[in-house]
Every structure is written in C-alpha cells, then in structure tokens.
Amino acid sequence: DWSDSFDYVLVWDAVHDLADPEIALREIFRMIKPGGRFSMVDPRAHSELADNLEDPAAPITYGCSLLHCLTLSLYHDGKGLGAMWGQELAVQMLQEAGFAGVQVLDVPYSASKLHFLCSKPEN
Fold it and tell me: Binning pLDDT at 50, 70 and 90, where does residue 81 land?
C-alpha cells in the first residue's frame, strides 16, 4: 500500500489523456504524504472554446488533441477530456480530489504549458 508514501509527485502532460482522470487524481492524492505537494503540467488552455480564440496555438492543440489525446481516453470508454480541457476544469478536478492551495503558474521557457501546484492538507 503506497498511501501517504511520497513527499512530491509530478505528472507531465498526461492527466488529460487518461480514461478516468478523477480516479488518477484521487490515487495521487492518496499516495502523497500529508503536507506533500503535487505538480501537474498540462497545456495552457481555457475550458471554454471562446476563451481560446485569441491563442494562436489553439488550433494545432485542438487538432493534436482530437487525433491523440481524445482517442487514447475514448478507446478505453473514458471521459475524453483532451488537451484543451482547460485550467478552470483542471483546478476544479484537483480541488474535488482533495488538493488544497491550487496555484496556476507559468512554466519557465514554455508559453504552451501551465504548472498546477497544490498540496495535500496536513491531517
């Protein structure tokens, strides 16, 4: 049993591909020690299509998502979030998994990624 085993967990560009991202986030939460931290790096996007219209990279990210991310998830009867699931939904799902103090940070030298940094509350 890996409950409360890790001080820090990093997941890079993967949660949106999973068939059941909610279960994955809850399992990550379970494995992190109280007071431990979780970093999730995912594409810089908003959850609503209209909020991405000014982003010149959005069309290619939507295309990649359609051809890769969605197919991975939907093949396994998954949720099908895709790469453009957006920071708003990401924050909501992290909070629902139990994480606290969710911060949305820039990734140095990467205009296309966001870093979601959060923690597991102390007991």
Answer: very high
